[in-house]
Design goal:
The chain contains 16 helices and 21 strands. By secondary structure, it is of the alpha+beta class. The chain folds into 3 domains: about 5-145, Nucleic acid-binding proteins (OB fold (Dihydrolipoamide Acetyltransferase, E2P)); about 180-265 and about 275-325 and about 385-490, BirA Bifunctional Protein, domain 2 (2-Layer Sandwich); about 325-380, no CATH class. Strands 8, 12, 13, 16, 17, 18, 19, 20 and 21 form a 9-stranded mixed β-sheet that branches. A 5-stranded mixed barrel has the order 1-2-3-5-4. Strands 9-11-10 form a 3-stranded antiparallel β-sheet, with no helix packed on it. It is elongated, with a radius of gyration of 29 Å.
Length: about 500
Protein backbone atom coordinates (compact mmCIF):
# COMPACT_ATOMS: atom_id res chain seq x y z
CA UNK A 1 0.00 0.00 0.00
CA UNK A 2 1.38 3.43 -0.98
CA UNK A 3 2.23 6.06 1.62
CA UNK A 4 -0.64 8.41 0.73
CA UNK A 5 -3.14 5.53 0.99
CA UNK A 6 -1.88 4.72 4.49
CA UNK A 7 -2.19 8.40 5.42
CA UNK A 8 -5.73 8.56 4.08
CA UNK A 9 -6.80 5.37 5.88
CA UNK A 10 -5.55 6.83 9.15
CA UNK A 11 -7.39 10.10 8.55
CA UNK A 12 -10.61 8.21 7.74
CA UNK A 13 -10.31 6.33 11.05
CA UNK A 14 -9.85 9.62 12.89
CA UNK A 15 -12.92 11.13 11.26
CA UNK A 16 -15.06 8.10 12.03
CA UNK A 17 -13.98 8.48 15.66
CA UNK A 18 -15.15 12.10 15.55
CA UNK A 19 -18.55 10.93 14.35
CA UNK A 20 -18.80 8.60 17.35
CA UNK A 21 -17.82 11.45 19.68
CA UNK A 22 -20.47 13.73 18.18
CA UNK A 23 -23.16 11.10 18.64
CA UNK A 24 -22.07 10.56 22.26
CA UNK A 25 -22.62 14.29 22.84
CA UNK A 26 -26.11 14.04 21.36
CA UNK A 27 -25.13 15.81 18.12
CA UNK A 28 -26.38 14.29 14.88
CA UNK A 29 -23.51 14.51 12.32
CA UNK A 30 -26.09 14.18 9.52
CA UNK A 31 -29.10 16.29 10.59
CA UNK A 32 -32.38 16.14 8.71
CA UNK A 33 -32.63 19.75 7.50
CA UNK A 34 -30.99 23.13 7.21
CA UNK A 35 -32.33 26.05 5.17
CA UNK A 36 -29.81 28.72 4.07
CA UNK A 37 -31.24 32.16 3.37
CA UNK A 38 -28.15 33.72 1.78
CA UNK A 39 -25.20 32.89 -0.47
CA UNK A 40 -21.62 34.14 -0.53
CA UNK A 41 -21.56 35.99 -3.84
CA UNK A 42 -24.72 37.98 -3.18
CA UNK A 43 -23.56 38.99 0.31
CA UNK A 44 -20.17 40.15 -0.93
CA UNK A 45 -21.62 42.07 -3.89
CA UNK A 46 -24.25 43.78 -1.72
CA UNK A 47 -22.14 44.38 1.37
CA UNK A 48 -22.43 48.19 1.35
CA UNK A 49 -26.21 48.13 0.90
CA UNK A 50 -26.65 45.55 3.67
CA UNK A 51 -24.48 47.53 6.13
CA UNK A 52 -26.33 50.74 5.28
CA UNK A 53 -29.61 49.00 6.05
CA UNK A 54 -28.15 47.81 9.39
CA UNK A 55 -27.26 51.39 10.40
CA UNK A 56 -28.52 52.17 13.90
CA UNK A 57 -30.00 48.74 14.60
CA UNK A 58 -28.94 45.18 15.31
CA UNK A 59 -27.17 43.71 12.29
CA UNK A 60 -29.15 41.31 10.14
CA UNK A 61 -28.29 37.64 10.61
CA UNK A 62 -27.76 35.32 7.67
CA UNK A 63 -27.79 31.54 7.41
CA UNK A 64 -25.22 30.00 5.06
CA UNK A 65 -24.49 26.36 4.29
CA UNK A 66 -21.49 24.91 2.55
CA UNK A 67 -18.20 23.09 2.79
CA UNK A 68 -15.43 24.11 5.18
CA UNK A 69 -12.73 25.07 2.72
CA UNK A 70 -10.04 26.36 5.08
CA UNK A 71 -9.55 26.76 8.81
CA UNK A 72 -7.05 28.71 10.95
CA UNK A 73 -7.48 28.11 14.69
CA UNK A 74 -5.93 30.88 16.81
CA UNK A 75 -6.73 30.31 20.48
CA UNK A 76 -10.00 32.00 21.37
CA UNK A 77 -10.85 33.01 17.81
CA UNK A 78 -10.53 31.32 14.42
CA UNK A 79 -10.94 32.10 10.74
CA UNK A 80 -12.07 29.82 7.96
CA UNK A 81 -13.59 29.85 4.52
CA UNK A 82 -17.03 28.53 3.67
CA UNK A 83 -17.55 27.37 0.09
CA UNK A 84 -21.16 27.38 -1.11
CA UNK A 85 -22.72 27.14 -4.57
CA UNK A 86 -21.56 30.64 -5.52
CA UNK A 87 -18.02 30.73 -4.17
CA UNK A 88 -16.04 31.45 -1.00
CA UNK A 89 -16.66 33.72 1.95
CA UNK A 90 -14.52 34.12 5.05
CA UNK A 91 -16.01 33.20 8.41
CA UNK A 92 -14.85 34.46 11.79
CA UNK A 93 -15.63 32.21 14.75
CA UNK A 94 -14.85 33.44 18.27
CA UNK A 95 -15.41 31.59 21.53
CA UNK A 96 -17.13 34.64 23.01
CA UNK A 97 -19.45 34.85 20.01
CA UNK A 98 -20.60 31.22 19.75
CA UNK A 99 -19.97 29.87 23.26
CA UNK A 100 -17.49 27.36 24.61
CA UNK A 101 -19.29 24.26 23.35
CA UNK A 102 -19.91 25.57 19.84
CA UNK A 103 -16.35 26.83 19.56
CA UNK A 104 -14.98 23.42 20.56
CA UNK A 105 -17.28 21.91 17.92
CA UNK A 106 -15.92 24.25 15.24
CA UNK A 107 -12.32 23.42 16.17
CA UNK A 108 -13.10 19.73 15.68
CA UNK A 109 -14.37 20.27 12.13
CA UNK A 110 -12.29 18.89 9.26
CA UNK A 111 -11.74 20.41 5.84
CA UNK A 112 -14.53 19.23 3.58
CA UNK A 113 -17.16 19.03 6.31
CA UNK A 114 -20.55 20.38 5.33
CA UNK A 115 -21.41 23.02 7.93
CA UNK A 116 -24.08 25.62 8.58
CA UNK A 117 -23.35 29.00 10.12
CA UNK A 118 -25.46 31.93 11.27
CA UNK A 119 -23.94 35.37 11.59
CA UNK A 120 -23.71 38.95 10.41
CA UNK A 121 -21.58 40.70 7.83
CA UNK A 122 -18.51 42.73 8.72
CA UNK A 123 -15.19 43.71 7.20
CA UNK A 124 -11.86 42.69 8.76
CA UNK A 125 -8.99 45.09 9.39
CA UNK A 126 -7.47 43.83 6.14
CA UNK A 127 -10.69 44.74 4.34
CA UNK A 128 -12.00 41.23 3.69
CA UNK A 129 -15.78 40.85 3.77
CA UNK A 130 -16.59 38.12 6.29
CA UNK A 131 -19.32 36.51 8.38
CA UNK A 132 -19.08 37.07 12.12
CA UNK A 133 -20.48 33.71 13.23
CA UNK A 134 -23.00 33.60 16.08
CA UNK A 135 -23.78 29.88 15.81
CA UNK A 136 -22.32 26.93 13.92
CA UNK A 137 -23.45 23.36 13.30
CA UNK A 138 -22.39 20.24 11.44
CA UNK A 139 -24.54 19.30 8.43
CA UNK A 140 -22.65 16.31 7.03
CA UNK A 141 -19.33 14.88 8.15
CA UNK A 142 -16.79 14.47 5.36
CA UNK A 143 -15.31 11.04 6.14
CA UNK A 144 -12.90 10.87 3.20
CA UNK A 145 -10.26 13.62 3.07
CA UNK A 146 -10.40 15.80 -0.01
CA UNK A 147 -7.41 15.65 -2.37
CA UNK A 148 -5.00 18.56 -1.96
CA UNK A 149 -1.85 19.86 -3.58
CA UNK A 150 1.10 18.32 -1.76
CA UNK A 151 4.85 18.63 -1.80
CA UNK A 152 7.08 15.56 -1.70
CA UNK A 153 10.84 15.47 -2.20
CA UNK A 154 10.75 19.02 -3.49
CA UNK A 155 8.09 18.20 -6.11
CA UNK A 156 4.63 19.77 -5.96
CA UNK A 157 1.92 17.45 -7.26
CA UNK A 158 -1.84 17.45 -7.42
CA UNK A 159 -3.32 14.54 -5.50
CA UNK A 160 -6.33 14.54 -7.85
CA UNK A 161 -4.74 15.18 -11.23
CA UNK A 162 -5.40 11.72 -12.65
CA UNK A 163 -8.00 12.24 -15.38
CA UNK A 164 -9.56 8.81 -15.03
CA UNK A 165 -10.13 9.33 -11.32
CA UNK A 166 -11.58 12.78 -11.97
CA UNK A 167 -14.09 11.37 -14.49
CA UNK A 168 -14.91 8.40 -12.27
CA UNK A 169 -15.37 10.51 -9.14
CA UNK A 170 -16.87 13.63 -10.69
CA UNK A 171 -18.36 14.56 -7.32
CA UNK A 172 -14.83 15.07 -5.98
CA UNK A 173 -13.70 16.77 -9.19
CA UNK A 174 -16.48 19.35 -8.79
CA UNK A 175 -15.49 19.99 -5.16
CA UNK A 176 -11.80 20.64 -5.75
CA UNK A 177 -11.71 22.07 -9.29
CA UNK A 178 -13.72 25.26 -9.74
CA UNK A 179 -13.07 25.34 -13.49
CA UNK A 180 -14.89 22.00 -13.84
CA UNK A 181 -17.98 23.41 -12.17
CA UNK A 182 -17.71 26.49 -14.41
CA UNK A 183 -17.71 24.23 -17.49
CA UNK A 184 -20.94 22.54 -16.45
CA UNK A 185 -22.61 25.81 -15.50
CA UNK A 186 -21.72 27.02 -18.99
CA UNK A 187 -23.06 23.80 -20.48
CA UNK A 188 -26.41 24.49 -18.84
CA UNK A 189 -26.41 28.03 -20.27
CA UNK A 190 -25.58 26.73 -23.74
CA UNK A 191 -28.45 24.24 -23.62
CA UNK A 192 -30.81 27.00 -22.49
CA UNK A 193 -29.69 29.26 -25.36
CA UNK A 194 -30.07 26.46 -27.94
CA UNK A 195 -33.61 25.86 -26.71
CA UNK A 196 -34.38 29.58 -26.71
CA UNK A 197 -32.95 30.00 -30.21
CA UNK A 198 -35.13 27.35 -31.81
CA UNK A 199 -38.22 28.49 -29.98
CA UNK A 200 -37.59 32.04 -31.23
CA UNK A 201 -37.35 30.62 -34.77
CA UNK A 202 -40.81 29.10 -34.43
CA UNK A 203 -39.78 25.49 -33.69
CA UNK A 204 -41.80 23.35 -31.29
CA UNK A 205 -39.84 21.25 -28.80
CA UNK A 206 -40.95 17.60 -28.87
CA UNK A 207 -39.94 14.23 -27.42
CA UNK A 208 -39.57 10.98 -29.34
CA UNK A 209 -38.95 7.39 -28.15
CA UNK A 210 -35.59 6.43 -26.68
CA UNK A 211 -36.42 2.72 -27.08
CA UNK A 212 -37.20 1.85 -30.68
CA UNK A 213 -38.14 -1.38 -32.48
CA UNK A 214 -35.84 -0.40 -35.37
CA UNK A 215 -32.53 1.43 -34.94
CA UNK A 216 -32.70 4.14 -37.58
CA UNK A 217 -31.70 7.67 -38.45
CA UNK A 218 -27.93 7.18 -38.45
CA UNK A 219 -25.20 4.77 -39.48
CA UNK A 220 -24.22 3.34 -36.10
CA UNK A 221 -24.15 0.14 -34.06
CA UNK A 222 -27.00 0.21 -31.51
CA UNK A 223 -27.33 -1.04 -27.96
CA UNK A 224 -29.86 -3.86 -27.78
CA UNK A 225 -32.35 -4.47 -24.98
CA UNK A 226 -35.44 -6.62 -24.45
CA UNK A 227 -38.96 -5.81 -23.33
CA UNK A 228 -40.23 -8.74 -21.28
CA UNK A 229 -43.98 -8.03 -21.32
CA UNK A 230 -44.12 -7.71 -25.11
CA UNK A 231 -41.29 -10.25 -25.61
CA UNK A 232 -39.65 -8.04 -28.21
CA UNK A 233 -36.18 -6.79 -29.00
CA UNK A 234 -35.69 -3.05 -28.73
CA UNK A 235 -32.82 -0.69 -29.51
CA UNK A 236 -31.68 2.34 -27.59
CA UNK A 237 -32.05 5.36 -29.86
CA UNK A 238 -29.11 6.09 -32.14
CA UNK A 239 -30.98 9.11 -33.57
CA UNK A 240 -34.49 10.61 -33.37
CA UNK A 241 -34.56 11.52 -37.06
CA UNK A 242 -37.15 9.13 -38.45
CA UNK A 243 -39.63 9.92 -35.69
CA UNK A 244 -39.19 13.67 -36.05
CA UNK A 245 -39.84 13.40 -39.78
CA UNK A 246 -43.01 11.44 -39.04
CA UNK A 247 -44.13 14.57 -37.15
CA UNK A 248 -43.41 16.70 -40.23
CA UNK A 249 -45.67 14.33 -42.21
CA UNK A 250 -48.31 14.89 -39.52
CA UNK A 251 -48.29 18.63 -40.16
CA UNK A 252 -46.01 19.87 -37.35
CA UNK A 253 -43.99 22.09 -39.64
CA UNK A 254 -41.06 22.99 -37.34
CA UNK A 255 -39.91 20.63 -34.61
CA UNK A 256 -36.74 20.17 -32.58
CA UNK A 257 -35.54 17.84 -29.86
CA UNK A 258 -32.68 18.02 -27.39
CA UNK A 259 -32.10 14.34 -27.00
CA UNK A 260 -29.86 11.62 -25.60
CA UNK A 261 -28.55 9.16 -28.16
CA UNK A 262 -26.74 5.86 -27.60
CA UNK A 263 -24.23 4.33 -30.01
CA UNK A 264 -22.29 1.15 -29.31
CA UNK A 265 -18.99 2.54 -30.47
CA UNK A 266 -15.51 3.27 -29.18
CA UNK A 267 -14.57 5.92 -26.66
CA UNK A 268 -12.25 8.80 -27.55
CA UNK A 269 -11.81 12.51 -26.88
CA UNK A 270 -14.57 13.06 -29.48
CA UNK A 271 -16.87 10.12 -28.70
CA UNK A 272 -18.89 8.85 -25.75
CA UNK A 273 -21.44 6.04 -26.26
CA UNK A 274 -24.12 8.21 -24.61
CA UNK A 275 -24.27 11.77 -25.89
CA UNK A 276 -26.55 14.75 -26.41
CA UNK A 277 -27.82 15.89 -29.81
CA UNK A 278 -30.09 18.63 -31.02
CA UNK A 279 -32.11 17.72 -34.10
CA UNK A 280 -34.43 20.12 -35.91
CA UNK A 281 -36.68 19.66 -38.94
CA UNK A 282 -38.30 22.40 -40.95
CA UNK A 283 -41.00 21.86 -43.55
CA UNK A 284 -40.41 23.91 -46.70
CA UNK A 285 -36.72 24.15 -45.86
CA UNK A 286 -33.69 22.64 -47.59
CA UNK A 287 -29.93 22.27 -47.15
CA UNK A 288 -29.33 25.97 -47.70
CA UNK A 289 -32.01 26.92 -45.17
CA UNK A 290 -30.39 24.69 -42.55
CA UNK A 291 -26.92 25.99 -43.42
CA UNK A 292 -27.96 29.55 -42.68
CA UNK A 293 -29.76 28.37 -39.54
CA UNK A 294 -26.57 26.62 -38.33
CA UNK A 295 -24.47 29.75 -38.76
CA UNK A 296 -27.07 31.79 -36.95
CA UNK A 297 -27.30 29.23 -34.11
CA UNK A 298 -23.57 29.24 -33.38
CA UNK A 299 -23.31 33.01 -33.65
CA UNK A 300 -26.34 33.57 -31.41
CA UNK A 301 -25.25 31.14 -28.69
CA UNK A 302 -21.67 32.47 -28.66
CA UNK A 303 -22.94 36.02 -28.22
CA UNK A 304 -25.61 35.12 -25.62
CA UNK A 305 -23.11 33.35 -23.36
CA UNK A 306 -20.75 36.33 -23.56
CA UNK A 307 -18.02 34.63 -25.59
CA UNK A 308 -18.29 36.69 -28.75
CA UNK A 309 -17.51 35.63 -32.29
CA UNK A 310 -13.71 35.55 -31.88
CA UNK A 311 -12.26 33.52 -29.02
CA UNK A 312 -9.30 31.35 -28.07
CA UNK A 313 -9.55 27.60 -27.99
CA UNK A 314 -6.27 25.87 -27.22
CA UNK A 315 -3.65 27.28 -29.54
CA UNK A 316 -6.20 28.57 -32.04
CA UNK A 317 -8.28 31.70 -32.30
CA UNK A 318 -11.66 30.75 -33.70
CA UNK A 319 -13.67 33.22 -35.76
CA UNK A 320 -17.38 32.42 -36.11
CA UNK A 321 -18.11 35.51 -38.21
CA UNK A 322 -20.41 34.56 -41.10
CA UNK A 323 -20.40 33.63 -43.87
CA UNK A 324 -18.42 30.48 -43.13
CA UNK A 325 -16.26 28.90 -45.79
CA UNK A 326 -17.58 25.90 -47.72
CA UNK A 327 -15.94 23.10 -49.70
CA UNK A 328 -17.30 20.08 -51.55
CA UNK A 329 -16.58 16.72 -49.92
CA UNK A 330 -14.80 15.11 -52.88
CA UNK A 331 -12.85 18.27 -53.68
CA UNK A 332 -11.40 18.71 -50.20
CA UNK A 333 -10.37 15.03 -50.08
CA UNK A 334 -8.52 15.51 -53.35
CA UNK A 335 -6.97 18.73 -52.02
CA UNK A 336 -5.46 17.00 -48.98
CA UNK A 337 -4.75 13.49 -50.31
CA UNK A 338 -4.35 13.87 -54.05
CA UNK A 339 -7.06 11.25 -54.68
CA UNK A 340 -10.01 12.12 -56.93
CA UNK A 341 -12.58 9.56 -55.80
CA UNK A 342 -15.06 10.78 -58.46
CA UNK A 343 -12.92 8.99 -61.04
CA UNK A 344 -12.35 5.75 -59.09
CA UNK A 345 -14.14 2.80 -60.70
CA UNK A 346 -13.62 -0.16 -58.36
CA UNK A 347 -13.41 -0.87 -54.63
CA UNK A 348 -9.99 -2.48 -55.04
CA UNK A 349 -8.68 0.63 -56.78
CA UNK A 350 -10.05 2.82 -53.98
CA UNK A 351 -8.38 0.69 -51.30
CA UNK A 352 -5.08 0.73 -53.18
CA UNK A 353 -5.14 4.52 -53.51
CA UNK A 354 -5.98 4.88 -49.82
CA UNK A 355 -3.12 2.59 -48.86
CA UNK A 356 -0.84 4.74 -51.00
CA UNK A 357 -1.51 7.71 -48.71
CA UNK A 358 -1.19 5.66 -45.52
CA UNK A 359 -4.86 4.88 -44.87
CA UNK A 360 -5.97 1.33 -44.08
CA UNK A 361 -9.40 0.82 -45.67
CA UNK A 362 -9.41 -2.98 -45.99
CA UNK A 363 -12.67 -3.33 -44.03
CA UNK A 364 -14.61 -0.90 -46.22
CA UNK A 365 -17.47 -2.21 -48.38
CA UNK A 366 -17.78 0.67 -50.86
CA UNK A 367 -15.69 3.20 -52.77
CA UNK A 368 -17.05 6.17 -50.87
CA UNK A 369 -16.59 4.40 -47.53
CA UNK A 370 -12.93 4.21 -48.44
CA UNK A 371 -13.07 7.91 -49.24
CA UNK A 372 -14.61 8.55 -45.85
CA UNK A 373 -11.67 6.81 -44.16
CA UNK A 374 -9.30 9.05 -46.11
CA UNK A 375 -11.36 12.09 -45.14
CA UNK A 376 -11.24 11.11 -41.44
CA UNK A 377 -7.48 10.62 -41.41
CA UNK A 378 -6.23 13.21 -43.88
CA UNK A 379 -8.75 16.05 -43.85
CA UNK A 380 -10.69 16.38 -40.58
CA UNK A 381 -7.82 17.57 -38.37
CA UNK A 382 -7.04 20.40 -40.79
CA UNK A 383 -10.54 21.93 -40.63
CA UNK A 384 -9.85 24.41 -37.83
CA UNK A 385 -11.91 27.47 -38.76
CA UNK A 386 -15.68 27.06 -39.31
CA UNK A 387 -16.36 25.39 -42.63
CA UNK A 388 -19.27 23.59 -44.29
CA UNK A 389 -18.33 20.38 -46.11
CA UNK A 390 -21.04 19.91 -48.75
CA UNK A 391 -22.15 17.59 -51.55
CA UNK A 392 -21.59 14.20 -49.95
CA UNK A 393 -21.87 11.02 -52.05
CA UNK A 394 -25.20 9.21 -52.22
CA UNK A 395 -23.60 6.02 -50.85
CA UNK A 396 -22.97 7.75 -47.50
CA UNK A 397 -26.29 9.59 -47.30
CA UNK A 398 -29.31 7.26 -47.35
CA UNK A 399 -31.73 9.88 -46.01
CA UNK A 400 -30.74 12.92 -48.10
CA UNK A 401 -32.12 14.19 -51.42
CA UNK A 402 -29.93 13.79 -54.48
CA UNK A 403 -28.68 16.86 -56.26
CA UNK A 404 -30.80 17.59 -59.32
CA UNK A 405 -27.69 18.29 -61.43
CA UNK A 406 -25.79 15.17 -60.27
CA UNK A 407 -27.80 12.40 -58.57
CA UNK A 408 -24.63 10.62 -57.39
CA UNK A 409 -24.26 13.34 -54.76
CA UNK A 410 -26.75 14.73 -52.26
CA UNK A 411 -27.78 18.06 -50.79
CA UNK A 412 -25.98 17.65 -47.48
CA UNK A 413 -23.45 19.49 -45.36
CA UNK A 414 -21.43 18.89 -42.22
CA UNK A 415 -20.07 21.86 -40.23
CA UNK A 416 -16.51 21.45 -38.94
CA UNK A 417 -14.67 23.53 -36.35
CA UNK A 418 -11.35 22.67 -34.67
CA UNK A 419 -11.10 19.48 -36.69
CA UNK A 420 -14.37 18.16 -35.28
CA UNK A 421 -17.64 17.43 -37.04
CA UNK A 422 -20.18 19.61 -35.24
CA UNK A 423 -23.29 18.34 -36.97
CA UNK A 424 -25.01 17.02 -40.06
CA UNK A 425 -27.78 18.44 -42.24
CA UNK A 426 -29.49 17.93 -45.55
CA UNK A 427 -32.48 18.38 -47.77
CA UNK A 428 -34.52 15.45 -46.53
CA UNK A 429 -35.46 12.64 -48.87
CA UNK A 430 -39.27 12.58 -49.14
CA UNK A 431 -39.74 10.23 -52.10
CA UNK A 432 -41.01 6.93 -50.56
CA UNK A 433 -39.96 4.88 -53.61
CA UNK A 434 -36.41 6.24 -53.58
CA UNK A 435 -36.28 5.80 -49.80
CA UNK A 436 -37.30 2.15 -50.06
CA UNK A 437 -34.61 1.53 -52.69
CA UNK A 438 -31.95 3.11 -50.50
CA UNK A 439 -33.07 1.14 -47.45
CA UNK A 440 -32.82 -2.05 -49.53
CA UNK A 441 -29.26 -1.12 -50.52
CA UNK A 442 -28.44 -0.49 -46.85
CA UNK A 443 -29.92 -3.87 -45.87
CA UNK A 444 -27.71 -5.53 -48.51
CA UNK A 445 -24.67 -3.81 -47.00
CA UNK A 446 -25.78 -4.97 -43.56
CA UNK A 447 -26.09 -8.55 -44.77
CA UNK A 448 -22.61 -8.21 -46.27
CA UNK A 449 -21.21 -7.51 -42.81
CA UNK A 450 -21.68 -3.76 -42.25
CA UNK A 451 -23.40 -3.74 -38.84
CA UNK A 452 -23.67 0.06 -38.93
CA UNK A 453 -25.81 0.09 -42.08
CA UNK A 454 -29.49 1.07 -41.86
CA UNK A 455 -32.28 -1.40 -41.16
CA UNK A 456 -35.44 -1.52 -43.22
CA UNK A 457 -38.17 0.69 -41.71
CA UNK A 458 -41.42 -0.03 -43.49
CA UNK A 459 -43.48 2.20 -41.19
CA UNK A 460 -41.31 5.21 -42.06
CA UNK A 461 -41.80 4.49 -45.75
CA UNK A 462 -45.54 4.23 -45.11
CA UNK A 463 -45.40 7.65 -43.43
CA UNK A 464 -43.66 9.12 -46.49
CA UNK A 465 -46.38 7.63 -48.67
CA UNK A 466 -48.82 10.03 -46.97
CA UNK A 467 -46.65 12.89 -48.29
CA UNK A 468 -43.89 14.82 -46.56
CA UNK A 469 -43.32 18.35 -47.90
CA UNK A 470 -39.82 19.47 -48.95
CA UNK A 471 -37.97 19.56 -45.65
CA UNK A 472 -34.62 20.60 -44.23
CA UNK A 473 -33.11 18.69 -41.32
CA UNK A 474 -30.25 19.51 -38.97
CA UNK A 475 -28.43 17.69 -36.18
CA UNK A 476 -25.87 19.36 -33.89
CA UNK A 477 -23.61 17.53 -31.44
CA UNK A 478 -24.29 19.45 -28.23
CA UNK A 479 -21.33 17.97 -26.33
CA UNK A 480 -18.94 19.06 -29.08
CA UNK A 481 -20.53 22.50 -29.13
CA UNK A 482 -19.86 22.73 -25.39
CA UNK A 483 -16.26 21.58 -26.00
CA UNK A 484 -15.86 24.46 -28.45
CA UNK A 485 -17.36 27.14 -26.23
CA UNK A 486 -15.67 26.03 -22.98
CA UNK A 487 -12.20 25.30 -24.40
CA UNK A 488 -12.50 21.66 -23.33
CA UNK A 489 -10.04 19.24 -24.99
CA UNK A 490 -12.18 16.11 -24.46
CA UNK A 491 -15.86 15.30 -24.71
CA UNK A 492 -15.50 13.71 -21.27
CA UNK A 493 -14.85 17.16 -19.84
CA UNK A 494 -18.35 18.21 -20.90
CA UNK A 495 -20.29 15.15 -19.66
CA UNK A 496 -20.86 14.84 -15.92
CA UNK A 497 -20.46 11.08 -15.86
CA UNK A 498 -18.79 9.70 -19.01
CA UNK A 499 -18.76 5.96 -19.51
CA UNK A 500 -15.82 4.29 -17.75
CA UNK A 501 -14.49 0.77 -17.42
CA UNK A 502 -15.39 -0.99 -14.19
CA UNK A 503 -12.93 -0.33 -11.40
Amino acid sequence: MEEHELEQNELIKQRIEKIKELKEKGINPYPVRFFPNAYSKNLIENFDAIKAEDEGKDPKLFLLGGRLHAKRVMGKASFGHLKDRDGLIQIYVARDGVGEENYALFKSFDLGDQIGVEGYLFKTQKGEISIHVTSVRILAKCVRPLPVVKEKDGVVYDAFADKEQRYRMRYVDLIVNDHVRDTFVMRSKILAEIRSFFQSEGFLEVETPMMQPIAGGASARPFVTHHNALDMELFLRIAPELYLKRLIVGGMDRVFELNRNFRNEGISFKHNPEFTMMEAYMAYGDMETMLRLTEKLFVTVAEKIGLGLKFKNGEHEIDLSPPWNRKKYADIIQEHSGIDFKTVKTLDEAKKLAKGVGVDADGCTGIWKVADEVFSEKVESKLIQPIFITDHPLELSPLAKSREDDPNFVERFEPYILGREMGNAFSELNDPFDQRKRFEEQVAQREAGDDEAFMMDNDFIRALEYGMPPTGGLGIGVDRMVMLFTNSPSIRDTIFFPLMRKE
